[in-house]
Amino acid sequence: MPRRGGPIQKRPIAHVDKVVAVASGKGGVGKSTVALNLAFSLALRKNEHTGVPLRVGLLDLDIFGPSIPTLMGLQNAGEPALTDAGAILPLTNHGLPCMSMGFLLPSSQPSSPEDPSAPGDNTDTPIVWRGLMVQKAVQQLLFDVDWSLGGASSGLDVLVVDMPPGTGDVPLTLGQLVNVDGCVIVSTPQDVALSDVRKGIAMLRKVNVPITGLILNQAYYLCPGCSSSGTSTPRYLFGKPDAFTRTASRLSLPVLAELPLVEGVSSSADAGRPYVLSGGGDVAKEDGEGGMRWREEMGRVAEGVVGALWGR
User: What domains lie within the chain, and their CATH numbers?
Assistant: First the structure.
């Protein structure tokens, strides 16, 4: 059968200057937590041309398992409002706008008896869709969200996109339809994770998505208070990073960071608070050297992404 029309044309997302995806072929490697903290790390940096903080948004493209509502503390925020033109308005917390399929799901639990007007709980509502429905939802999240920030500015400098695991419909749809300016790949040290990461990178390169670099998450553990000198010996709970380093070298990709395993990162994510917004004194007290190093490494990731996006 002859193909109708020409090749698919990529297009920009309205009111968004740069698009950065956070991806991994493997699930459960901390991709959403990294995407969340990367977005806030970018928002803490200034635009070199205007001198004001970068305007950053966060888009959750994990249709079947959206995590951003919980990570942003918005899991019971209710449905988003619409503009007069029918576009979806992002929800905002901690000063950063975000959008997720999790905001659009019907509630599976009734609202609170104490407050019948409160939105119900939809965290347990499953999505049982075939591929065409998934593609349509992805396109709506990509092109029907109003990132103009109420017309107060020209929109976003950077949109961070949290990708689902795997090499299926969602990453293909993004890569084929959108001008993606960079992609950060997250992995853990295990060989099973690295195998899926290599597949994901190969798929992204096929649809011409530029890879900014790799992040090794849960690279090692620094025990708080285990050393009288204040400096702990790294413990490689999930294996040493040798295989990860070889993979990065073989693929000619830079390693942006090696993030330690930190208890506070998990607890703050469950509480809906980005870890990079925690006070330095609290981090040092609760998580010690590991927590401080995690924040520093995430700052370096943001610097690397900014440099790759704007060519410096």
Answer: 22-106+120-311 (3.40.50.300)
CA distance 95 to 53: 12
Encode 50-79: b = buried (16+ Cβ within 10 Å), e = exposed: eeeebbbbbbbbbbeebbbbbbbbbbbbee
pTM: 0.91
Q: How confident is the model at residue 30 (pLDDT cuts 50, 70, 90)?
A: very high
CB-CB contact of 72 with 94 (8 Å)? yes
Pair of tokens at residue 276: 């990079």
- The residue among 101, 24, 31 whose CA lies nearest residue 66 is 101
Alpha helices in 128-262 (DSSP H): 131-143, 169-177, 191-206, 242-250
CA distance 55 to 260: 28
Query: Dihedral through CA 245, CA 185, CA 30, CA 157, nearest 10?
Result: 140
pLDDT score of 106 more than 90: no
Among 1-5, 147-151, 293-297, the minimum mean pLDDT is found in 1-5
- Quote the strand ranges of 204-303, DSSP E: 213-216, 255-258
The Cα–Cα gap between 90 and 71 comes to: 15
| Residue 210 CB partners (closer than 8 Å, separation 6+) | 180, 181, 182, 183, 308
**pLDDT in the model for residue 109:** 61
